[in-house]
């Protein structure tokens, strides 16, 4: 079965690179422009992993994470923050909330792909 | 009216007063008893029978001369705030119970001085009281229609019984407590009541005579103006009268402080010094009301009754002559009220003086020392009771022997001149610390001798023998020594003349002997406490300087004799607690000595207290220099404390200011952190895009479709542009907000600038097929930085385009004249800004959620920069609220 990944970010240029890289790895890729779009998608398409930005309009990354964590259907969905917020206090906060990984921008596409692959093994 | 009938009314009226006094005594804490109005009314004890009847007599015979007696108090009233408050403070602090105590304490608690003042007050007041009895007697006789009853002996004289009734009243309510410094609420309440009665009844009879018997004030004036001597009645007359006015005003000014009854009501019976504030205008008002009808009663009487009857009783005779007995009775009761209040308060004050300053210190101290406390208290009360009776009886005897021949006015003025001898010691002593007891005693004695020679002696000789050669030719025919014209001064009336010479001699003696005598240390100690009273207020017990050896047990023994075991114990416990001393302290210090003296002062007077305490302690002599040094030190301590307190307040102030600044800095710091965070985020975003796309392109092994490759390259370009723009904006914003930005103010044509802005944006609008309209074609010149304003306009127009729907969009740029400014508008018909965003729209990096594009091209700094630019021009930028369609941005630039 193809792995499902949901990329949540409000920056189209960044999304485009990730989409290309994961499709090449044979992932089924879903894209959401912000938290509220992401919530709609996760209900219908239970992804294996969510790549989540934090600073987004409307519903931000933290809120999205809390929502997913509260859904019993989504208990197997891994959550990875991918954000420009790289202060240690931010990282701590993200992991404490229950994120499986905390990755920072700018990133190496290769590294992101291998981290996600490892996470889903 | 029948004698017995009249007596019954008098007794009934006295019962009413008894009832009022009794009620007030029972509810002594009630606000009905303790308020500024009762206080003011009690001050009206100043208006005795002399005012009630005497003024009319003077008005009838010598015109407006009755007025200066009231002008003095009116002038004094505003000064009460300063003078009386100081006197009150000192009196309360030292438990002073008479004016004799007050003055003698100021001069070192001098026993002889206290006794001397008591004697002066007796000499000055007894004739005054007899004058009141005379008024009662004469009005009583008028009321009983002079129906032939002439007293054949004391027991047959109604005045005697009235005097006895007054004595009983004063005794009953005046000697409830041994501590004379305690307030006499009952007596004060009844005096206040009497003050109301006498004023109202006097006003009623005044109005009756003026408006009922005559046809108003102008009628009386008109009729009077046709009589002889009228001119003399309404004018000042000669220089002599001018001087008279002057001296009588000064005299009455002094009296409002010095008369024993005035000191009693104004100082000793005062419960709160803030009552003074009302009294200083209410009391003059009372006096004014009292004098309202005096002239008309006098003239009305003169016109109707002529000169055959005693003008002093016009107010009584006029209603009687017109058959109005009831009104006459009211007037009689009003006068009687004036008499009662004066007699009761005066005898109360005098009896305390006689017991505390004369009898106890000079005769009964030894007796007290051996006795039991309860017996002592009874003794003290009895001494006072007997004093009251004795004083009233003395006044009665004086009345029988002298007063019958004399007018109310002359006796009143003689009393005033005698009491005035206390003035130099009293007033100067409050402000001059060199005044000594030796100076005071000599001054008073000299003053009294001069008064005796210039006033009392000729007066008595005339009254007793009827010869006037003593006054007209001088003793042994020495013209310079004529008692009414001493050293040839013949400008003054006898009382003013006596007042002038006696006060002059008194003051000069006081000054001379004070300056030449060294004074003892205790005297100087009290002098400092009085003169500088506000400074020593905080010191309280420790203001008294004392050196010596004393045992607490001995002092306690003395206290027990007067206060009883229980009260002494309680007082001492309080004292020890206050100064944090162990309850079994053995040796007494200066504070305890002072404290004990004060405790005893209320009961037996200051002089006796000092003698009693001195009897059980071994006091060492302290030099004057030492006293002054210690006083100086304690003053310094107070000052130092004050400075310390000020310093500490300053520090607190500074701390809070620092905290404020710090809070502001922390807030700014936080803002800066947030700004940097946001900047970092905004910078990282395009970099992330560039980095990721570049990586993918580099690693590409030929399987990347062409269009994707192209897209990535395009994205890289776009992100680079965004990065460059962002950096420019950040720098610009930073420059603007740190004032480093250079604003180039020049005169420009608004129309040209607008056209440039629209020209710049036209192609972007065209791309989206949005209409861009320049509405106002008017040319106008204004001073501004064109590049910067262009930036603002471009930004606003750019935003408008961004928010507009393609093809349907319409943007209007407009400007108009506002108030001292030009107002610019950029309107669009786009989605509009949500209400909740409007507040934040000018914040940096705030981007509305409602934007039309997937991702805004803006840096998030556009509006923030625009705001800075407009504010640099001293203008304002805003978003119109409540627009139904689209958005309206406005800004205005002021005319420079």
Describe what this molecule looks like in 3D.
The complex is a heterodimer of chains A (121) and B (896). Chain A is of the alpha/beta class and 121 residues long. Chain A has one domain: Response regulator (Rossmann fold), CATH 3.40.50.2300. Helix content of chain A is 45%, strand content 20%. Chain A is built from 5 helices and 5 strands; from the N terminus they run βαβαβαβαβα. Chain A has a 5-stranded parallel beta sheet with strand order 2-1-3-4-5, with helices on both faces. Chain A starts with a strand and ends with a helix. In chain A, 39% of the residues are buried. The model of chain A has no long low-confidence stretch (mean pLDDT 90). Chain B folds into 4 domains: 3-409, Sodium/glucose cotransporter (Up-down Bundle); 542-613, no CATH class; 627-737, Helix Hairpins, CATH 1.10.287.130; 746-894, Histidine kinase-like ATPase, C-terminal domain (Heat Shock Protein 90, 2-Layer Sandwich). The N and C termini of chain B lie far apart (96 Å). In chain B, 45% of the residues are buried. Chain A binds chain B through residues 10-14, 16-18, 20-21, 24, 33, 55, 57-58, 84-85, 105-110, and chain B through 677, 680-681, 684-689, 691-693, 695-696, 699, 703-704, 708, 711-712, 715, 718-719, 847, 849, 854-855.
Number of discrete helical segments of chain B: 35
Strand order of the largest sheet of chain B: 4-6-7-9-8
CATH class annotation of chain A: Alpha Beta
CATH architecture of the largest domain in chain B: Up-down Bundle
Any idea how many domains of chain B? 4
Largest interface: A-B, 23 and 27 residues
Count of runs of 4 or more consecutive helical residues of chain A: 5
Q: What share of residues are in beta strands of chain B?
A: under 5%
Total count of strands of chain B: 9
Helical amount of chain B: 55-70%
Sketch the major β-sheet of chain B. 5 strands, mixed
């Amino acid at each position: 079965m193809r792995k499902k990944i949901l990329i949540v970010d409000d920056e189209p240029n960044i999304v485009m690179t990730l989409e290309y890289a994961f499709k090449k790895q044979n992932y089924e890729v879903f894209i959401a422009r912000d938290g509220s779009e992401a919530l709609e998608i996760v209900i219908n398409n239970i992804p294996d992993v969510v790549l989540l930005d934090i600073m987004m309009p409307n519903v931000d990354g933290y809120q999205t994470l809390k929502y997913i964590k509260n859904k019993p259907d989504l208990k197997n969905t891994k959550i990875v923050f991918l954000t420009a917020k790289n202060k240690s206090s931010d990282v701590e906060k993200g992991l404490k909330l229950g994120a499986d990984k905390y990755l920072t921008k700018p990133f190496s596409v290769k590294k992101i792909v291998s981290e996600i692959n490892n996470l889903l093994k | 009216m029948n004698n017995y009938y009249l007596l019954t009314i008098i007794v009934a009226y006295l019962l009413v007063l008894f009832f009022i006094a009794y009620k007030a005594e029972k509810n002594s804490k009630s606000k009905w008893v303790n308020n500024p109005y009762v206080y003011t009314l009690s001050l009206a004890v100043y208006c005795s029978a002399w005012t009630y009847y005497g003024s009319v007599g003077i008005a009838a015979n010598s015109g407006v001369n009755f007025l200066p007696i009231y002008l003095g108090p009116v002038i004094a009233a505003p000064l009460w705030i300063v003078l009386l408050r100081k006197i009150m403070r000192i009196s309360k602090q030292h438990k002073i119970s008479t004016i004799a105590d007050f003055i003698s304490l100021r001069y070192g608690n001098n026993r002889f001085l206290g006794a001397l003042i008591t004697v002066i007050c007796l000499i000055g007041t007894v004739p005054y009281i007899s004058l009141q009895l005379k008024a009662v007697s004469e009005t009583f006789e008028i009321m009983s229609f002079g129906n032939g009853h002439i007293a054949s002996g004391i027991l047959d004289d109604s005045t005697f019984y009235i005097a006895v009734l007054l004595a009983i009243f004063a005794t009953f309510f005046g000697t409830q407590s041994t501590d004379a410094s305690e307030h006499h609420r009952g007596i004060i309440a009844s005096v206040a009541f009497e003050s109301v009665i006498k004023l109202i009844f006097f006003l009623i009879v005044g109005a009756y005579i003026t408006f009922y018997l005559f046809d108003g004030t102008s009628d009386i004036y008109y009729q009077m103006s046709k009589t002889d001597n009228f001119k003399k009645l309404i004018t000042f007359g000669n220089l002599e009268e001018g001087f008279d006015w002057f001296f009588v005003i000064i005299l009455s000014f002094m009296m409002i402080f010095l008369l024993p009854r005035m000191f009693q009501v104004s100082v000793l019976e005062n419960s709160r010094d803030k009552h003074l504030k009302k009294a200083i205008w209410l009391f003059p008002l009372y006096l004014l009301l009292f004098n309202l009808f005096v002239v008309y009663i006098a003239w009305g009487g003169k016109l109707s009754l002529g000169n055959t009857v005693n003008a002093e009783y016009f107010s009584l005779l006029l209603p009687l002559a017109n058959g109005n007995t009831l009104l006459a009775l009211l007037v009689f009761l009003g006068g009687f009220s004036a008499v009662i209040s004066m007699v009761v308060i005066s005898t109360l004050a005098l009896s305390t003086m006689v017991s505390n300053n004369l009898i106890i210190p000079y005769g009964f101290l030894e007796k007290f020392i051996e006795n039991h406390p309860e017996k002592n208290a009874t003794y003290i009360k009895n001494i006072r009771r007997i004093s009251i009776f004795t004083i009233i009886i003395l006044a009665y005897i004086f009345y029988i022997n002298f007063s019958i021949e004399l007018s109310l006015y002359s006796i009143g003025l003689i009393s005033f001149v005698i009491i005035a001898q206390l003035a130099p010691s009293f007033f100067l002593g409050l402000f001059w610390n060199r005044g000594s007891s030796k100076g005071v005693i000599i001054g008073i004695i000299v003053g009294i001798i001069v008064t005796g020679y210039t006033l009392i002696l000729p007066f008595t000789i005339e009254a007793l023998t009827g010869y006037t050669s003593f006054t007209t030719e001088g003793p042994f025919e020495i013209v310079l020594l004529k008692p009414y014209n001493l050293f040839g001064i013949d400008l003054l009336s006898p009382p003013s003349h006596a007042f002038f010479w006696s006060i002059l001699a008194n003051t000069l003696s006081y000054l001379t002997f004070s300056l030449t005598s060294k004074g003892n240390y205790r005297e100087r100690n009290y002098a400092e406490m009085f003169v500088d009273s506000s400074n020593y207020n905080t010191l309280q017990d420790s203001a008294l300087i004392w050196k010596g050896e004393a045992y607490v047990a001995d002092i306690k023994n003395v206290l027990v004799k007067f206060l009883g075991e229980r009260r002494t114990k309680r007082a001492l416990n309080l004292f020890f607690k206050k100064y944090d001393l162990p309850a079994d302290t053995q040796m007494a210090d200066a504070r305890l000595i002072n404290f004990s003296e004060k405790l005893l002062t209320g009961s037996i007077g200051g002089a006796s207290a000092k003698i009693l305490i001195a009897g059980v302690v071994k006091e060492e002599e302290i030099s004057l220099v030492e006293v002054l040094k210690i006083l100086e030190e304690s003053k310094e301590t107070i000052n130092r404390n004050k400075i310390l307190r000020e310093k500490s307040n300053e520090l607190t102030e500074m701390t809070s200011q620092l905290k404020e600044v710090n809070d502001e800095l922390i807030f700014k710091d936080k803002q800066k952190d947030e700004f940097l965070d946001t900047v970092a985020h905004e910078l990282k975003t395009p970099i992330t895009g560039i980095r990721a796309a570049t990586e993918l392109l580099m690693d590409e092994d030929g399987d990347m479709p062409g269009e994707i490759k192209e897209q990535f390259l395009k994205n890289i370009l776009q992100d680079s542009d965004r990065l460059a723009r962002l950096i420019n904006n950040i720098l610009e914003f930073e420059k603007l907000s740190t004032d480093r930005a250079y604003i180039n103010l020049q005169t420009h044509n608004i129309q040209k600038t607008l056209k440039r802005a629209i020209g710049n944006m036209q192609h972007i609008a065209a791309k989206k097929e949005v209409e861009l309209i320049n509405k106002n074609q008017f040319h106008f010149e204004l001073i501004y930085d064109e590049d910067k304003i262009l930036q603002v306009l471009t930004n606003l127009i750019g935003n408008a385009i961004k928010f507009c729907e393609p093809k349907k969009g319409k943007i209007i740029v407009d400007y108009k004249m506002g108030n001292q400014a030009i107002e610019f508008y950029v309107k669009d018909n786009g989605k509009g800004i949500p209400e909740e965003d409007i507040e934040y729209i000018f914040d940096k990096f705030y981007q509305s959620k409602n934007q039309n594009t997937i991702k805004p091209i803006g840096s998030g700094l556009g509006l923030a920069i625009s705001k800075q630019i407009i504010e640099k021009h001293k203008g304002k930028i805003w978003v119109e609220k409540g627009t139904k369609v689209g958005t309206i941005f406005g800004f205005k630039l002021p005319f420079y």
